[in-house]
Amino acid sequence: MADQAADWSTESNDALSISLVVPDVGRPRSLYNFHPKMTYSIFGEEERIFGYQGLKINLQYNASDMRPNLQVSFNKKFTTVGETEATDVKGILEPLLPKIALEKPSIFDKAISEPMMKDWKPPGELWQTIQIGIETVEVWKGNLADVAVQQLLKRIQILVPLFIEGGVTLDLEEPEWTLERWTVFFYYQRVAEKEDNPYIFMGYSTVYRYFHFQAAAHESGSKKEAKADFTLPIDNISFSSLPCRSRISQFIILPPFQRAGYGSRFYKSIFDFYLAEPETIEITVEDPNYAFDDMRDINDLRRLRTLPDFKAIKINTKITPQPEEAIPNNIVDLPALEEIRKRMKIAPRQFLRVVEMHLLASIPSSVRKADVLDDANPKMREYGLWRLWVKKRLYKHNKDLLSQMDKDERLDKLDEVLEGVVADYVRLLEAYKARVKFDSFEDLAKGKGKGKGKEIEGENGKRRSPSDEDSDSSDGEPLPKRTKV
After folding, report:
1. How large is the C-alpha radius of gyration of the chain?
2. What residues have CB less than 8 Å from 231, skipping those under 6 apart?
3. CA distances (Å), origin 204, targets 181, 389, 431
4. 445 vs 189, 438, 439, CA distance in Å?
5. Which of 90, 237, 257, 466 has its CA 20 to 30 A from that of 3?
6. 257 phi and psi, to 5 degrees?
7. How far is Cα 10 from Cα 51, in angstroms, rounded to an integer?
8. How many whole angstroms separate alpha carbon 350 and alpha carbon 341?
9. Cβ neighbours of 17 (radius 10 Å)
């Protein structure tokens, strides 16, 4: 019986094929084919589809306007026995796609071949054109209240559960004043010599305006409690004029364009936009996964290292911490760091991690691997102070959990966590150097000519997901959940 059941069971990740196509004589021509990263939120935890032999699910997209067409084919279908029946594949996918996705292939082929499609452009407005040698990519942005932006998003939202672990699609039935708080960035490759439409979809990102009401300060400099007594929407107030944190919610680069620097350029372009927008106080990220974390760390470090005042930040080796006393606050110039952080609009925790990484880069490997740090050695002294400074941050972020341990256990745990953090920073610094080298080589080659239970943050060499980055200060941040972006 088990063998018979296996005959009718198909791996959903293998069965579902996604393709970007362009019009051609007879039938569309495929530019790229790829499979989803995951399908458990659609077809169940086991990611299997029952009831078919030779099952093929083809979701093809017109490469420019992302008009979808879904086709399901199979060699044999299971005959219903009692309550056991084949999975309704189209019925499951239908709520995740617009109605036009279920039209006949002939209608799809005709629609994408219409002469008017040659003049199609992405919705919204062109934000940035990025020249990579002879290659051109464009970033377009639009407000979710725009019907054209909504239409394109409806077509591609199924990509969220297929490529973002735990990802949730946006509710486009929200009132207009809520939709206005969303900005969508579309990422396109522009191929001028294509006979049909020159745009090829590469990915997209959604950003939410999380409005930021700051507490007013007393004359003494202390902050009084912020109070708000109003109902949204507020009449006669434009949401776009209010101070906010702009939070990257969804970020997708399609598989054919991954691991080639496109994601970094897209992230940089989005960051550039909000860095120049006066209403944005901070640029944050909602529940990033490990891959996004790495890209973000490397790009934030790269951006900050263009600033002379950031590069001037050093460990203050003139101070001498005293045993049994609190770790000094002036190991690093915190006021100077805070001024840079606010100017660059990076969330506190993310900023401190990048600073720690930057400062660690000046410590030789031989010093990091030393069994005992000799205080008479300048670099060993610097490293010892760096370790104390990082431990102070780690303890603050994990105070509730660490305070439940006795002193010796707490110190051992902090040492263990710190070693994981150091190992992760070393890994990221190597990736940073490789990224810089790759970009320099790429520019030259393309003719540009320029060069278990609760965890403690960092226990596995990575920070927990900073869903709480929107805290006004770095004090008292809870251990956040890890979901996915």
Report:
1. 26
2. none
3. 17, 38, 24
4. 19, 10, 10
5. 90
6. -115, 10
7. 8
8. 10
9. 16
Please report, for residues 97, 108, 155, the alpha-carbon distance to residue 66 in angstroms, rounded to integers and kept in the order given. 12, 11, 7
pLDDT (tens digit per residue) in 162-198 = 999 888 899 998 888 889 999 999 999 999 877 788 9
- One-letter amino acid at 168 equals V
According to the model, what pLDDT value does residue 234 have? 58
**How does DSSP classify residue 38?**
-
- Per-residue pLDDT, 160: 96
Whole-model pTM: value is 0.86
Rounded-to-integer distance, Cα 187 and Cα 251, Å: 10
For the question of residue 325 being annotated catalytic, the response is no
Question: Is pLDDT above 50 for 479?
Answer: no
Q: Which of 127, 248, 232 is nearest to 186 (CA)?
A: 127
Contacts for 330 with CB less than 8 Å, ≥ 6 apart: 316, 319
Long-range pairs, 405-413, Cβ under 8 A, ≥24: 413/456
Cβ neighbour number for residue 314 with a 10 Å cutoff: 11
3-state secondary structure of 55: coil
Mean pLDDT over 78-102 rounds to 94
CA distances to 30, 36, 229, 412 from 58, rounded to whole Å, are 12, 12, 52, 54
Quickly tell me which residue has 């995740």 as its tokens: 96
> Across the strands, what pairs with 68?
61
DSSP string over 251-309: EEE-GGGTTSSHHHHHHHHHHHHHHH-TTEEEEEESS--HHHHHHHHHHHHHHHTT-HH
Residue 84 corresponds to which tokens in the numbers above?
A: 């056991």
DSSP code for 85: -
**Residue whose entry in the numeric block shows the structure tokens 């263009």:** 306
Mean pLDDT calculated for residue range 199-204: 97
Give the residue carrying structure tokens 């990915």: 203
Provide the mean pLDDT of the chain.
86
- The residue type of 385 is L
3-7, 108-112, 155-159: the lowest-pLDDT one: 3-7
- Give the model confidence (pLDDT) of 442-466 as tens digits: 555 554 443 344 555 555 444 444 4
Q: Which of 47, 282, 286, 459 is catalytic?
A: 286
Per-residue model confidence as pLDDT tens digits over 281-294:
999 999 888 999 99
Residue 378 near residue 366, CB atoms below 8 Å: no
Tell me the two tokens of residue 454: 């609760």
Cβ neighbours around 214 below 10 Å, total = 10
